[in-house]
Every structure is written in structure tokens, then in C-alpha cells.
Amino acid sequence: MSQNIEIEFKNMLTKAEYENLLKEFNLDNQQIITQENHYFDTPSFSLKEAASALRIRKKKNTYEMTLKQPAEVGLLETNQTLTEEEAYHAIHYGKLPFGKIKDILKESGIPISEIEYFGSLVTNRAEIEYKNGLLVFDHSIYLQHEDYELEFEAENYADGKQIFQELLHYYRVPERKTENKIRRFYRQKYANQ
Prior knowledge:
This protein is of the alpha+beta class. It has one domain (2-185): Hypothetical Protein Pfu-838710-001 (Beta Barrel), CATH 2.40.320. The protein has helices at residues 15-24, 46-49, 84-93, 100-107, 157-170, 181-191; strands at residues 2-13, 33-41, 53-59, 62-70, 75-82, 116-130, 133-142, 145-154. It starts with a strand and ends with a helix. 24% of the residues are buried.
């Protein structure tokens, strides 16, 4: 189990902008890793209402459950490594494994027995170190939809924001208001109904 504060900046990209940035940063298919995010909430969106998110990420043959909660700056991320069996039971039966995340949810008043699986989002991701942070290039596929996104993870909010804005300006990418993946996933899920 680990906890950390996540400070990240996001911007949606067109497919052409995404492909151009991969080329500009010399990234090819060998540097792209596929990961799958499985999202959870209650039918009444208790986590969303608390500005929180719960996911299990499968990356290669590892599984990690992550709870994201609001923090003074950025998000507090609590991570818990899972076995394949624990991930399977959470996804297929809504049974969250014991551990710190389940304890935090209980303490937060989230009804554990009502948490259910909402669906998955596959991301093809490339990452590189960039100016004391991490630059992330994402191509996400979910619910018969796909999108492209650039993220920058930083240690410091003010410096990170400046670096990210300068990067967008340099590559002539317009700043776009960008929701996080889980919000985009939910919006698409309910647009399809």
C-alpha cells in the first residue's frame, strides 16, 4: 500500500496532434504500453459525489487498485497491489479486497456493499521524463469511442503548470478544458444509453 499526492495537468489532443507529438519526442510503438482501467462506483455515484474515483488497473500481468480523493493541492492517491484473483472478484462480483482502500471507503461513509463495476477503458500509453516531471501520451479506447490526451505529472503545481503551458504553446496545441478519464468514460457510457 502506498499513498502519494498526484499533481497533473491534462490536455485533449486531436489524433494529428497526438501523432505529431509522438514523432517530435521520438516515441514509437515499442515505447507504448497497453493498460486497462476498470472503474467502480455505487449506482447513486457516491464516489463521484465525493469527488473521488476508484479503479483497478491491469498493466502487463499486474493489478493495482487506486482510490483518488481530493487533496489541498492535486489528488491523494492510495494504491494497493492486488492478486489476479482479488481483481477478478472485484470486477465480476463487486467484492473489494480487504486493505487500506476498503478501510478508507468505510471511514468516508461510502456504502461498500453497493460498489459495483461500471466498465473498462483501455489506454495505449507512452511516458518520458520531461523537465523534472513525467510527460504522458495517451490514446484511450472505451465504449466504441477513442480519444487522445497529453498529461504532465509534476512535483510542484506552479512550476508544472508553467512547464505544461509552455509545452502546449511551443507545439501550437490549443489549451482545452480536459476532464479526467473516468469522467469522460461516464459521460460516454450515459450518452450511449
